[in-house]
Amino acid sequence: MSRIDCPPAVIVLPMCRLIPYESHHADGVIAVVRAVHDEHGFTWEADGYHKDLYDVDRHYLLAGMFWTLVDGERIIGCVGVTLHGGECELHRLYLLQEYRGRGLGRKMLDESMTFGRAKGCHRMIAWSDVKLGDAHALYRKVGFVQEGERICDDPDESHEYGFWKEPL
Ligand SMILES: CC(C)(COP(=O)(O)OP(=O)(O)OC[C@H]1O[C@@H](n2cnc3c(N)ncnc32)[C@H](O)[C@@H]1OP(=O)(O)O)[C@@H](O)C(=O)NCCC(=O)NCCS
């Protein structure tokens, strides 16, 4: 498989840019996701539930996309999409706590949906821990429907809600 074409960087706030992921972002992206997991008391599992973040190229860029949100040089957020025929899945939508409530999460989600549509997807799905109510409010705001639940195979046996949006 070849690496897919990367879209250009998107300006979202004067100092904040959503840019295609590059390998040198790895430590910063992991730090963001880990900070949010610590905030919620979730267990970190580098060789298990979080292993996608240690090999973003293989997990996302070969069949999807991953973006890094930066404020100047600081990595403050991320989001990924995987493609599955006419359906795509949203992954790893995370933003540092001090940047929330300013539309950045919405911008990352919008960019993910635009990417999915451009790749011919008519439906997007997402799974999200039941504790992440802000994300669920955002999903509902952009038209996702909440449906289904699952218990994940992670150290916390996380309880997640399913969401879908169709048409995308
Ligand atoms: C989910 C997350 C990315 C949202 O980012 P954000 O930048 O704070 O969200 P936005 O400012 O773009 O909010 C967009 C909309 O989402 C909803 N929303 C966001 N935070 C909300 C909150 N605390 N209460 C109610 N609604 C909220 C609102 O509808 C808001 O629209 P509004 O601006 O018209 O009120 C961020 O809260 C986050 O990183 N949370 C922790 C990680 C997480 O839950 N990730 C999801 C994994 S599935």
Structure description:
The chain is an alpha+beta fold and 168 residues long. The protein has a single domain (2-121), classed as Gcn5-related N-acetyltransferase (GNAT) (Aminopeptidase, 3-Layer(aba) Sandwich). Helices cover 27% and strands 35% of the residues. It has helices spanning 26-40, 56-61, 104-118, 133-141, and strands spanning 10-13, 16-20, 64-71, 74-84, 87-95, 123-129, 145-151, 159-165. The protein has an eight-stranded mixed beta sheet, with helices on both faces. The structure holds coenzyme A. The site of coenzyme A has 18 residues, from β5, α3 and α4.
CATH topology: Aminopeptidase
Report the uncertain regions.
Answer: none
**Any idea what the CATH architecture is?**
3-Layer(aba) Sandwich
- Arithmetic mean of pLDDT: 93
Structure, briefly:
With 168 residues, the chain is α+β, with helices and mostly antiparallel strands. The protein is built from four helices and eight strands. The protein has an eight-stranded mixed sheet, sandwiched between helices.
Task: Write the SSE topology.
Layout: E1 10-13, E2 16-20, H1 26-40, H2 56-61, E3 64-71, E4 74-84, E5 87-95, H3 104-118, E6 123-129, H4 133-141, E7 145-151, E8 159-165
Coenzyme A binds at residues 36, 93-95, 100-106, 128, 132, 134-135, 137-138, 141.
Q: Descriptors for this entry?
A:
single chain, 168 residues, alpha+beta, Aminopeptidase, 8-stranded mixed beta sheet, 27% helix, binds coenzyme A
